[in-house]
Design goal:
Shape: globular
Strand order of the largest sheet: 1-2-11-8-13-6-3
Order of helices and strands: HEEHEEEHEEEEEEEE
Number of strands: 13
Largest sheet: 7 strands, antiparallel
Radius of gyration: 16 Å
CATH class: Mainly Beta
Length: 223
């Protein structure tokens, strides 16, 4: 099942679409902050460059990533986890810029989730051919807070599944500036991204950038 066409999404940049109870697509929601978002990303990726992490099984991930916020999502031979330190630099991850925090909070509120306070933003860079298999976001300790996912750059087909891996997923075209928010009964739905097709975007070139805001539910230690 495919939800609308890329052309429809582009023509209706501020449309709201419900995927299921607790999950919505906010078309074009990030566009008003476009310039400030990319300036923030420039500073983040200077401090913590994109890298291809390794899975616990020793495979190189096709999606390059970095993080900002109190924690970062990391993967290596010891498993998947959140860590306050960038393993490449040994330094804390860059702080989450105000423009990104406000974008996530405003999107969550527009989807019905108030008082959202994400403490991590995963920044994923997809090249043509890269994909994200169906999975649940379960590394967090706080499942009450929603996930906020921002699409930037070239288009993608987002897979929106059910609570079981074998449930047939919906195919949702996502364009530059679209934001997906899911929480509540939809928080543990399976989701993924089909292999990215070769396209070009004026701001990201051949890449798609995804910002995934989450609340880990972890307590910070130290000063």
């Amino acid at each position: 099942m495919t939800l609308n066409l890329f052309e429809d999404a582009a023509l209706s940049p501020l449309r709201r679409e419900e995927l299921c109870p607790g999950a919505v697509v906010l078309r074009g929601f990030a566009l008003p902050d476009e310039s400030a978002i990319f300036e923030a990303l420039r500073h983040i990726t200077i401090a913590a460059p994109f890298r291809h992490m390794m899975t616990p099984g020793g495979f190189r991930m096709s999606v390059a990533m970095t993080n900002c916020g109190s924690y970062g999502w990391v993967s290596d031979s010891s498993g998947y986890r959140y860590d306050a330190t960038d393993p490449d630099s040994g330094k804390p991850w860059p702080r989450m810029p105000d423009v990104l925090l406000k974008l996530a909070q405003n999107a969550a509120a527009s989807a019905g989730f108030t008082n959202y306070k994400p403490d991590v933003c995963l920044i994923n860079r997809y090249a043509p051919g890269s994909r994200l298999s169906l999975h649940q976001d379960k590394n967090e300790r706080d499942f009450d807070a929603p996930i906020v996912s921002v699409s930037l750059g070239i288009p993608a087909i987002f897979l929106w599944g059910g609570l079981c891996r074998q449930d047939r997923p919906m195919r949702v075209p996502l364009m530059h500036g679209d934001v997906v928010v899911w929480g509540g009964a939809a928080r543990l739905r399976y989701h993924g991204v089909l292999p990215i097709k070769q396209e070009y975007h004026r701001l990201t070139g051949l890449y798609r950038i995804n910002l995934a805001f989450r609340k880990t539910g972890r307590r910070q230690t130290g000063p």
